[in-house]
Amino acid sequence: MARRLYLSTAALIGASAAVAAPPSDAFEARIRPVLVEHCYKCHSAQHKTEKGGLRLDTRERMLQGGESGPAVVPGKPAASRLLKAIRQTGDGPKMPPKGKLPPAVVADFEAWIAAGAPTPSSTAAGSIDPAARKHWAFLPVRDQGFGIDALLLEKLKAAGLSFSPPADRRTLLRRVYFDLVGVPPTWAEVEAFEQDQSPDAFARVVDRLLASPRYGERWGRHWLDTARFADTKDGVLMYGDDRVRPYAYTYRDYVIRAFNEDLPFDRFVHEQLAADLIEPKVEPWRLAAMGFLTLGRMFDNNIYDIIDDRIDTASRALLGLTVSCARCHDHKYDPVPMADYYSLYGVFASSEAPLVPPLIAADRRGPEEFEKKYAAKQREIEEMVDKQYALLAETARTRVGDYLVHVVTTQPDPLESAIYFLSLAPEDLRPPIVARWRHFLAQRAKPDDPVFGPWHDLFALPLDRLAAEAPGVIERWKARPSGQVNPLVIEALAKAALNTRQDVARTYGDLLKRVYEESKAKGPKPDADREQLLAIVAGPDSPSYFPKSHTWKYMSRGEKDGFGGKQTELDRLAVKEPNAPPRAMSLVDSPERYDPRVFVRGNPTRPGAAVPRQFLTVLSGEQRKPFPNGSGRLDLARAITDRANPLTARVIANRVWMHHFGEPLVDTPNDFGLRCAPPAQLALLDHLAATLVADGWSLKKLHRRIVLSVAYQQASFDRPEARSVDADNKLYWRMNRRRLDLEAMRDGMLAAAGRLEERLYGRPVDVVGEVRNSRRTVYGLVDRQSLPNLFRAFDFASPDQSAERRPLTTVPQQALFGMNAPFVHEQAKALAARSAEPGPARRVAKLYRTALLRDPDANEVKVGLAFVEAAAAAKEKSPLGAWEQYAQVLLLTNEFMFVD
Fold first, then answer.
1. What are the residue boundaries of the structural domains of the chain, listed by start?
2. Are 487 and 511 in contact (CB under 8 A)?
3. Which of 94, 378, 477, 483 is the most buried (most CB within 10 A)?
4. Cα–Cα distance, 258 to 291 (Å, whole number)
5. Is residue 494 over pLDDT 90?
6. What number of other Cβ atoms are within 10 A of residue 820's Cβ?
7. How confident is the model over 382-436, as pLDDT tens digits?
């Protein structure tokens, strides 16, 4: 094969003259060898060079092109820059730089492009390297039929190791409580479990915990890390109530409820991506699931970054792939070409958030005065959008001449692709529309275009000869056969005085405007020529077109500020009204589908090759087809959870294992790509993934299988002989000892103090500033812009992007919080009060039982009494009494703060 690829040019000429190969075979026989010999040095991934942003080593990159536009236009040799370059005609680049290709080779390229530029890999497989498909994560899940313990024990024995002895019953019960419900058991529950020696005692505890509503609060919080959940916006200059997303909490509540109901994980995925599209229609509360997509950062309303965030979150959280790395170039490591990124971009670009979030509690209304104000403000917003859209869309069409003149008299401006702080006056041209006209003319101003062909020829004339030679150009176009030129264009140009390029642009603009105005006034009967021009100024592919949902982007500064202010007022109303009915931060399909194009180097002002909305190449079969339904969100969700996709089940199984054992089987839970080495326990991971799917994607059954294993129930103490063989415990010869995370620590203190509130769901609360707030930490307000110091000190997940796992730090602020925080003092007071007993020794014992879930030994009682005596006699003032200080000490012990 390699020898054939490097055939000489002379041999190629001979081959070309011999037999005609099928078009796709011709690529391998006649086209690729020439590219390898003459082009790849400067334009391929193999040599890591992309001069001019152009790569020629895949069909997709040829169609995408470089800085000058597409290199190959299938079926159109005359419009293909690659062919122009190798012909070495005109003012463009001449390739190869040294010498010319033989005419027969050039003819091969022309024939190949005319046939549609087919390549053997341009069908289902795309440009994916076949070797990448052999990466362990992309191979099918294989279950060897053995259980968790058998798979682990096999590798332990091979290393000369064994499981550790079982944990004592008190340790095991505390472990499984914190794992499954995030709070400790009570002393009575510990006593009952220690006394229950029946074989199924632990299994019954597990079943009871999985049925508890506390389970959803614990495991829902794990998912919220992955979903980069926050309760607030991240807009510039947003403070106080204005920064709060009034309905973000409904996504958090949805997640908790879905976990409690053991919603199958595949359905969980479907609802988070496309609850609005599922048939039969879902219950209204399930629409809140789409907060998974909508509750990311706002990026100052930069839609390109918002969609990128959605692609990044969905691909990392659900597939363990960093697809967003392909935004500006093919993924440097993984088999994700830019075309795949923009296929997903098209899915999310075809979806939009409704102006007003839908109600998800149809039978619930807020106070009458609130409802009146809310409805009035909602109408104001809708009316403003309607009026502005009508005005701005009409202005964009009627000022077509101004846009064309601006394009031909100015150089591209970086602001044409920016949407930050645009201070536009009503008379200003809209930069995005200018950028689209530039691109439109670059694509249409070609010698064979019936409308802009004359434009091309006139602009090819030297400026000082334009006036003199323009009539000749027009006469030549007049002589063309019918169908090759639009007669209305020639008529307008013939009547105009064309002295400058501005005159040409203005003539085109006046003609397009006239045709548009006549169409509104029902003037001359529409014919093919008029329809051709009308589509340019008023059709869905016109540079003047924008969807109604994007109206705010085109508003003048005053109107844009007013629109933003009205939206903020609407949110502020809901934030201030505690009984405002819940709404879903959802999406709907846009009225017009967005047909994606690859953005050259990620620049939205430089759209390249068109791509369909479809799933990732590396995870698709040979018959990959575009998503057929609407935006494609539900099709995407189904592709993600398709049993043929080996990633999704592995990714969620890996996350579940991580939260039970403290360490994942795959070290990078959000990245299963080529740089991710096979996990030491791949067979175990596949067993977990396979049984998850076989059990109907039930996470509760997966939990049960894990926590009932010998591996989970073993002790956590160190064994030096085992550590010398496997220092990182990759073989699981013991249970990992873990520090409580923020939620378990705070909730555990509240539980020990007897103050933990068990009410489910609701609006976020201040669990940091309100010292006496006793709600579970999962209901605490997560402020994306200003994460509380307590959250940061205790390694809370960053809500800026999907978090694969939380960091684990040990810093002085953690100890200072335990010693000085008013919250800890409050729990110490409550713990001391509920542990009052008639004798000091009995009181020490009661404190131990309540906080540490065991009886103290004689020495511990002695030390405790001595501490209380010393604290009572101390001259230094303390906000806590002696017994309260002792209760605080117990809450700060490693025994309380860690789970064995």
1. 2-122, 245-357+592-640, 388-554, 649-696
2. no
3. 477
4. 14
5. yes
6. 10
7. 999 999 999 999 999 999 999 999 999 998 887 776 655 457 888 999 988 998 9
- The structure tokens 């999985």 sit at 210
Identify the band that residue 679 occupies on the pLDDT scale cut at 50, 70 and 90.
very high
What value does the mean pLDDT of the chain take? 90
- pLDDT at residue 17 in the model: 34
CA-CA distance, 538 to 250, in Å (whole number)? Answer: 40
Per the structure block, which two tokens stand in for 10?
């002379």
Closest CA to 897 of 831, 810, 825, 769: 810
pLDDT digits (tens, 9 = 90+) for 524-541: 777 899 999 999 999 988
Tens-digit pLDDT profile for residues 332-359 = 899 999 999 999 999 999 999 998 899 9
3-state helix, strand, coil in the chain (%, to 5): 55, 5, 40
pLDDT bin (cut points 50, 70, 90) of residue 1 is: very low
**What pLDDT does 51 receive?**
75
Cβ neighbours of 82 (radius 10 Å): 24
CA geometry: angle 186, 172, 738, nearest 5 deg: 100
Mean pLDDT on 591-604: 86
Q: 280: cis peptide before it, omega within 30°? A: yes
Whole-number Å distance between alpha carbons of 366 and 375: 11
Query: Which of these, 100, 317, 111, lies nearest to 227 by C-alpha position?
Result: 317
Q: Which two tokens stand for residue 113?
A: 């492009």
Strand pairing category for 588-589 and 351-352? antiparallel
H or E segment to which residue 588 belongs: strand 588-589
Q: Nearest 5°: phi and psi at 593?
A: -75, 145
Phi, then psi, of 166 in degrees rounded to 5: -65, 150
Which of 402, 397, 430, 427 minimizes the C-alpha distance to 416?
430
Res 8: pLDDT: 32
Q: Where do we find the tokens 């057929």?
A: 628
H or E element, residue 273: helix 265-274
In this prediction the pTM is: 0.84
Structure tokens at 839: 């004798």
Tokens of residue 80, six digits: 């293909």
User: Strands 49-50, 43-44: parallel, antiparallel or unpaired by DSSP?
Assistant: antiparallel
Q: How many CA atoms lie within 13 A of 858 on its CB side?
A: 0
HSE (side-chain half, CA atoms, 13 Å) at 595: 5
Q: Give the integer Cα–Cα distance in Å for 750 and 757.
A: 8
Q: What is residue 189's three-state secondary structure?
A: helix
Residue 671 is which amino acid?
Answer: D
Q: What is the DSSP letter of 721?
A: H
Token pair for residue 650?
């592995």
Cα separation, 19 vs 409, in Å, equals 51
**What is the C-alpha separation between 357 and 584, in angstroms, rounded?**
6
Residue 311's contacts (CB-CB under 8 Å, 6 or more residues apart) are: 323, 324, 341, 344, 345, 348
Q: Please state, for a pLDDT cut of 90, what percent of the chain lies above it.
A: 73
